[in-house]
Design brief:
With 220 residues, this protein is of the alpha/beta class. It contains 9 helices and 6 strands. Helix 1 (17-29) packs across helix 9 and helix 4 (91-100) crosses helix 5. The chain is globular. Mean pLDDT is 89; it is low at 214-220.
Length: 220
């Protein structure tokens, strides 16, 4: 069966793409999914993270060229889900990831700069959707939100202007996300911050719902 391909993209750096990708991958692995993480960013942050943990969470490969669709076809047979960590500011690589994806997740922080930076990426996604009857599906996911602040409360309204959905699930500003990443881990490894674990489980479950009827869960 063809694996589901989830691309985590934003052409602005520093929005938490790699952190979202690694934690989502671990959340899926814990549900018995066979997950392959694909580093499509020449900067190689995902590969660096994997070097620290020695492949403990999920296998990671680097495919950071425009031949991504062809390259993925050669390595995807043994997996249920592929998660692509995309490159910022490289439109051709983003377009290649969008071409193969079933779902594009766009992490954004509650910052006007993040909101403005999304415009070009959204245009690429919509152009692809027009050619392929709505594929890939796409949704924003809010990262590092600060609860009960005016900006966090308004961000979903601003994102609605792009006419793409925003996940109800989000991540809040918590030390565990960057600290676990620095150790080559995810929030699931130590489970010291149960709120962070619950946040990533909620994102995983919402991804499940979006990808239906394509079953993401692997049945052993």
């Amino acid at each position: 069966m063809k694996p589901n391909i989830i691309a985590v993209l934003n052409q602005k750096g520093g929005v938490g793409k790699t952190t979202r990708a690694t934690n989502l991958a671990h959340a899926l692995v814990l549900e018995q999914n066979r997950v392959l993480l694909v580093d499509a960013d020449p900067q190689g942050s995902l590969r660096d993270w994997n070097e620290v943990n020695r492949g403990a969470v999920a296998p990671v490969i680097g495919l950071d060229r425009e031949t991504l669709p062809k390259d993925l076809a050669a390595v995807s047979q043994d997996y249920d889900t592929l998660i692509l960590d995309g490159a910022p500011q490289i439109a051709k690589l983003s377009a290649a990831a969008i071409k193969v994806a079933d779902l594009v997740l766009i992490p954004v922080t509650p910052s006007p700069y993040d909101l403005w930076a999304c415009a070009d990426l959204v245009d690429i996604i919509k152009a692809r959707q027009e050619l392929t009857k709505g594929r890939p599906q796409a949704a924003f996911v809010i990262s590092r939100a600060i609860r009960n602040t005016k900006l966090s409360g308004e961000i979903a309204q601003v994102l609605a202007e792009y006419e793409l959905p925003t996940l109800s699930a989000m991540t809040t500003q918590r030390v565990i996300y960057p600290s676990s990443a620095a150790d080559g881990k995810t929030v699931f490894d130590d489970a010291k911050d149960w709120t962070a674990v619950a946040e990533m489980q909620a994102i995983r479950d919402e991804v499940y719902a979006i990808l239906q009827p394509q079953a993401v869960r692997h049945v052993a």
